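Thread title: Can someone regenerate the structure for this chain?

I was given the following input by a collaborator and told the matching structure tokens would be attached. They weren't. Posting the sequence so someone can regenerate them.
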Amino acid sequence: MTIRNLPDKTRLIQLAEEASELAHACLKLVRVMDGDSPAPEQAVRDNLIEEMADVSVCMTALQDIAPLAQVGEIINQKAQRWEARLNGEG
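Best answer:
Regenerated them for you:
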């Protein structure tokens, strides 16, 4: 069995769980950066990278629902809009 053979519901639940863990990892790093957590910064950064990888794996497993090429196009559009806003163009 492969990840892509799992039911859609199972893969979506896994992505939601991993995305939640990624959000928590981001917040933990912010607390470390602000000096509000005694956790070692490198360990927290390493955990953030691991959670990003987990989300990426789940996204890959959901290509039949949300093709990565389509996701990539939207990422590019959003990045361009974000950059334009930061440059006062939008």
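The chain has a mean pLDDT of 95.
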